[in-house]
């Protein structure tokens, strides 16, 4: 649980209201509201420190591909050259969306062959 003071204020307000209503449906000792999504986010970001360098390398590759229209077109050309399904594309993660790093890694893995091809081809790019 985090220590957000606004959550504490909410709990106190709810406790007061429940006393006013003489609610017998909820026991006061169970009144505790915390932002579960925030807690999960903290856990995920802490865990990401373990694989941070690998994720940074993938992020740099995806940023590089998406850095200009020319690189996007070259990447799409190589997708079709390798005869892969090009209906989807690589995505870049967003720091405030805690599952976007997973989506970025998933999309980059799907196109790993294209990244390797571009890295090893004479007209490709270096990562």
Automatic annotation (TrEMBL):
Protein's organism: Linum tenue
Name recorded for this polypeptide: Transposase
Domain of life where this protein originates: Eukaryota
SUPFAM superfamilies documented for this protein: Ribonuclease H-like (SSF53098)
InterPro entries attached to this UniProt entry: RNaseH-like_sf, ZnF_BED_domain_contain
């Amino acid at each position: 649980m985090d220590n957000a003071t606004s959550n504490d204020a909410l709990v106190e307000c709810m406790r007061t209201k429940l006393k006013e209503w003489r609610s017998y449906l909820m026991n006061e000792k169970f009144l505790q509201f915390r932002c579960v999504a925030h807690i999960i986010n903290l856990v995920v970001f802490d865990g990401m420190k373990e694989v941070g360098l690998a994720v940074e390398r993938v992020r740099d590759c995806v940023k590089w591909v998406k850095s200009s229209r020319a690189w996007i077109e070259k990447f799409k050309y190589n997708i079709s050259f390798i005869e892969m399904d090009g209906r989807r594309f690589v995505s870049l993660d967003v720091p405030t969306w805690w599952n976007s790093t997973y989506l970025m890694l998933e999309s980059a893995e799907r196109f790993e062959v294209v990244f390797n091809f571009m890295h090893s081809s004479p007209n490709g790019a270096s990562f």
